[in-house]
Give the backbone structure.
Amino acid sequence: HVQLVESGGAWVQAGGSLRLACKASLFTYATKCMAWFRQAPGKEREGVARIATGSGNTYHADSVKGRFTISKDNAKNTLYLQMNSLKPEDTALYYCAAGSNCLFRYWGQGTQVTVS
């Protein structure tokens, strides 16, 4: 069983930056694919970015491409999301998720990002 704990959410002014972190209890086959999702009030959950923890290959949604960067530190079992040039529409609860083959079985509790 993998536990995921997010941190780094905060209130920030538009144009600012934040770095989210997701600490995993372990990196194993169950965390071969990790991702960040977000959900704003009244909206469906949206995939933001994902990474293959072995190859390091990444994918970023068009809505965040060029502004957000997903990365990982295998030594620290930690996933990151660097968010720059934040916009009010980035306001959401951000979740990290993990699974094999990008079937996300494990989810964190979320960290709130508010941009105004």
About this structure: The chain has a mean pLDDT of 94. The two ends are 37 Å apart (CA to CA). The chain is about 0% helix and 50% strand.
